[in-house]
Amino acid sequence: MNILPLQVNGLSKRYAANTVLAGVDLTLAAGEVLCILGPNGAGKTTLISIILGLLKADSGEVRLFGQLQAGISRSNALRQKLGVMMQIGSLSANLTVFEQCDLFSSYYANGYSAAELVALAGLEQHSKQRFGRLSGGQKQRLLFALALAAKPQLVFLDEPTLGMDVAARRSLWQQIRQLKQQGVAVVLTTHYLEEAEQLADRILVLDQGVIVAGGSPAELKALTQYKVISCHSVLDNAALLALPGVQQLNRDNNHIILHSCQPEQTVKALLLADESLHQLEVLPVALEQAFLQLTQASQTTEEQAA
Amino acid sequence: MNTAAIYRKEAWYDLISVWRTPGFVIPSLAFPTVFYLFFGVVFNSGAASAYMLVTYGCFGIMGPAMFNFAMNIASDRAHGWLTLKRLSPMPAAAYLLAKFTTSLVFALLIIVALFSIAAVFADVRLHSGQWLLLALVLLPGTTPFALIGLILGLTLSDKAAPGVVNLIYLPMALLSGLWLPIHIMPTLLQQASWIWPSYHLSQIGLKIIAMDQGHALWLHLSCLLVSSLLLALLAAWSFTRMTGAKV
Predict the structure, then answer these.
(1) How is A26-83 classified by DSSP, letter by letter?
(2) Could you tell me which residue ranges the ABC transporter domain spans (chain A) (predicted)?
């Protein structure tokens, strides 16, 4: 069996009375993009920091390439395979793009050369410019390139497209897809649903430190299309189950609760079938408030971007 | 990967990054030279100029060591740069040695500047062996101050670091007799000066030109050694504390 680049078991972390992570499990295979999605404050950065050994977990274990993570700061071999782009990342303001790449490429045995890193960042025109004078998007691109300096097998990207415009974001997505094709395992955190949908093989939705949902983008999308329809109706079970989209039925006398994957059609048919129907409510699945917030948030972002 | 190349590049880029910060370069070089020109050359001459060459030399090499370590490490921590480096295969020693090399380069520049002023304008006449010995005392003498800077850089925020360095640097210089000769200070302060590494460094330097207070060399050397050792332990502790608890 191949050794998984990343395995996390039962990771928990508390700050005083605040639970930041509660029993997080995840695995990541080579060539897989795992997206950790969640609103700000969901615990994404904490999770990455613990995986990288920058923070200590209260319980649970992290294995990188089968090796317990406790060794990360000591294991040069491990760090030779690792690329990291953290959310707060600023380089020495006084060094130029080329100089930063030259310095970083010297750390790795089989990594990219300085010139290749400048090209990966797409900053050939700016190679003599100091970091402090780059635009926000250019800085992000340089930090992304430095994360690839090792020609890594495992890459952590914490909100890599934060503050990028639409075009820059799309070109970074393209680069992440290329990494995947090269067999690199990628952990990506984001709070853009669209980003997760575009890139991820698997999405984990993290909310208040708990993985509330996980699956392929398509599976998750299907989950959010479920709605709960609550009403008082005189229709019998057979008639209710025959309505379009109904997957599940619970009733308490006349109080009916339906789970539907096509709520609009269900409601339309329901109203036609029972004129006495009252107290109609359509509710989101008690799934994860977080995911829906994200759906809405990302829709607004897309509208703004369009 | 070539480990020697990492050390070399880390040192070179630390130096040019610092060199491109006029706010660091100008005060580091100007303060000791201007002070020495003023107090050691314009207002004094002869023996006093030689005495002050040593004390302002100590004062001069302390500043860049403390400031380079404290401010740049605090800022690298604040901006996540240190985090990225720690997750890379860069040996931590390369990072620290780079900063130390930068401190040594600045110390050397200050030594050359002060020696030139002393020889040319203040007519200080020393044997070539004395000049050389003085430089060889001052250069490694940066060590305890680099360690103080390292501790501050590992524990303070980037905003607090410069202020706190000044708060330590300037009183320590004054209380070790770097501005006013130690023997004109009140007895209590003279006794208290033994806790400052800068006092011992200046006394060793003054011994070379036979203007020290007359304590044994081994006493000053052991005090410098012990204080450096304690500071190194404190720095190591600060480092483990930082890596254990903070991003």
Answers:
(1) EEE-TT-EEEEE--TTSSHHHHHHHHTTSS--SEEEEEETTEEGGGTTT-HHHHTTEE
(2) 6-233
